[in-house]
Amino acid sequence: MIDILIAILIGIILGTITGLIPGIHTNLVAVTMLTLSAFLLNFISPLLIAIIIISMAITNTFLDVIPTIFLGAPDSSTALAVLPGHRYLLDGKGYEAVILTIIGSLGSLILTIILIPLITPLIGKIYPLLEDYIPYILILVSVSLILREKISKSFAFIIFLLAGILGIITLTMPNLEEPLFPLLSGLFGTSTLLISLNSQTILPQQKTTYPKLNKKTTIKSLSTSVLVGSVASFLPGLGPSQAAIIGTQVYRKINLSGFLILIGGLNTVNMVISFATLYIISRARNGAVVTVSKILTEFQIQHLILFLAISLIAGGIATFLAINLAKTFSNTITKVNYQTLVLIIIALIMLLVLLISGFIGFLVLLTGTFIGILPSVKNIGKNHLMGCLLLPIILFFLI
Amino acid sequence: MDENSLYKLALVTSLTGLLILFTISESIEIKQYKISEINKKLLNKQIQVQGTITRITETPGLFIFDMKDKSGTITAILFKEENINITSNQKIQAEGKVIQYKNKLELEISKIII
Q: Is the CB of B6 less than 8 angstroms away from the CB of A103?
């Protein structure tokens, strides 16, 4: 028992570190642990390694919004939160933005676990029905994404295509480590930072007031994230970001605070449902679960219950950590000159990309940054840049 | 909802998780033992041991071999359900049931990691 608790604690610490450092995705750590597992198994059992990974992955989904909102440096699951997060930050409400995503993460975690006895049998029934239609669902999502752009549909389409082509090139590039990191950092991160650098932004004093919540928005966002998150997580090729696009189509008129709750929720639901997916249809849908499935030779109902219990423990503790870390970030970020800070972050992202993904990754980051600046030229939504993930997946299924 | 209720909700969530964990931990944990620690109290229980294979005897349906760690040696039985190849001096981690055969304790392996 005590060894399980220690494993959960180690997972939470690792999840906090991977959550706070931009570019170190849980997948990277999970795969590293898989490589090390032959060595680690000399000291601890496969189950404990799995527990560390699960607890790390859940903690990570609570904390990865902090660098996304305060530094504009996202990972694949939070890319769409950069813009609303940044807007909150420039209003002096970075803390509120983090709280909103935390409410999303914790709320939908609780909802998902309450509903999981209903969701799991449904996955087994719906999966075979939807399996063949995934590319068409994605095409529908992409078309509706572009058609809903009010300012310029053709420009939105061009941006979708450009990002899509960059995505195809990046994701098919051999020997490129962590391709999503330079791709998404460029499209969503550094481009946003450069624009705010150019507009001579002064970062206002950050308040740490609790956001005013609209009950209806909160409930609607939470239920959308559980609904869309569950469906998206057991289908291949759909991550939290694609789910967020589908979510906003389902939800329709979503406001910024609702969107932040949705992003936080989807991120966590996606992770929790992927455990159920492994149990029901024996499919691993993300790096953490792939590693767990390779380490554990069997995955039974008691493993699923164990993982859900761990998710609750880690989720609760991660909420405490995220709130307090967000306060620390809020209080320190205005003490530094914003222009200098932005330059430091851009340099940091460039350095991390060079270290993790090498020179080719660096070129991807540069190209992505230029494409990422384009939407703001005509003031259209940045979500068309999600073509970088949608287009490659659609083509992957059709070809 | 204010910050305090969010804290409370987080606390309740963690405690619920802990409660579930306590309830199921007995059924999930397969404890690892040193070979010398295997005694009659563990009879018919699932345990895990790590060790090196020595002295393999192969029959059409099963392997019988000795597993050795720093603390001692135990005879292990592995049914050939799939294509498994084991050789002498291989380091393995095995999970299985402690059984009694001719007044001697043996390990009936259900899972083996080479």
A: yes
- Residues A187-207 as b/e (b if ≥16 CB within 10 A, e otherwise) read bbbbbbbbbbbeeebebeebe
Tokens of A180: 């999503």
| pTM as predicted | 0.76
Cβ-defined contact of B24 to A302 (cutoff 8 Å):
yes
Residue A243 has which token pair?
């789910």
Residue A312 distance to chain B (closest CA, Å): 5
* pLDDT block averages, 10 residues each, chain B of length 114: 86 93 77 82 80 86 87 87 76 85 85 76
φ, ψ (nearest 5 deg) of residue A105: -65, -50
DSSP 8-class letter at B44: T
The mean pLDDT value for A91-111 works out to: 93
Among A210, A303, A308, the residue with its CB nearest the CB of B3 is: A210
- Structure tokens of A69? 């909102």
Residue of chain A minimizing CA distance to B91? A42
Distance in angstroms (rounded) separating the CA atoms of residues A205 and A54: 37
Whole-angstrom CA distances from A97 to A68, A86, A190, A240 are 10, 9, 20, 18
Q: Which residues of B touch A310 (CB under 8 A)?
A: 17, 21
Q: Which amino acid is at B16?
A: T
Cβ A316–B14 below 8 Å, yes or no?
Answer: yes
Q: What SS3 class is residue B31?
A: coil
Compute how many other C-beta atoms are within 10 angstroms of the C-beta atom of residue A104.
Answer: 29
A297 touching B (Cβ < 8 Å): yes
B80 φ/ψ angles, rounded to the nearest 5 degrees: -85, 80
ipTM of this complex prediction, to 2 decimal places: 0.76
**Long-range Cβ contact pairs of A110-118 (< 8 A, separation 24 or more):** A110/A312, A110/B9, A110/B13, A111/A222, A111/A223, A111/A226, A112/A226, A112/A229, A112/A230, A112/A268, A112/A269, A112/A272, A112/A273, A113/A272, A113/A308, A113/A311, A113/A312, A115/A226, A116/A272, A116/A276, A116/A308
Output the six-digit token pair for B99. 């059984």
Annotated domain spans of chain A: 2-398
Answer positive or negative: Cα dihedral of A112, A117, A123, A126: negative
